[in-house]
Amino acid sequence: MRSTRATGAIERLNSRSDTHRYSMVRTAAELFYLVQRLPDLPPEKLSEALPLDEFVRFVNGFGPQKPKRISKLDTAFEKQLIKKDQA
To answer: How far, rounded to the nearest angstrom, does the alpha carbon of residue 33 sit from its chain's CA centroid?
Structure first.
């Protein structure tokens, strides 16, 4: 089953979002679309039916994003690169 990547993308989206719960629907034509489930309401369709790669790209860019972690070493390395370019 190839939908493992899509399932992982949905899990990451749900972990980034505190209040909303998302899920995916897979069609017979092997296309996927994103739905939002709210209590006491029918599921709301949030995307068109997309092939797997496009669906994963869409879900990864949807919703709140986590800031990228930058270590002290990364910061120091960037400073060195700036100094090297100026010299």
So the answer is: 13
**Predicted local confidence at residue 35, as pLDDT:** 93
How far is Cα of residue 36 from the mean position of the Cα atoms in its chain? Answer: 14
- Residue 30 lies in domain: 4-86
Which single residue is written with the structure tokens 């034509």?
Answer: 29
Q: Quick check: 3 and 32 in contact, CB under 8 A?
A: yes
Residues 45 and 19: beta-carbon distance below 8 Å: no
- Asked if 4 contacts 51 with a C-beta cutoff of 8 angstroms, the reply is no
Q: pLDDT band at 83, cuts 50/70/90?
A: confident
Count up the domains in the chain and report the number.
Answer: 1
Does pLDDT of 43 surpass 90?
no
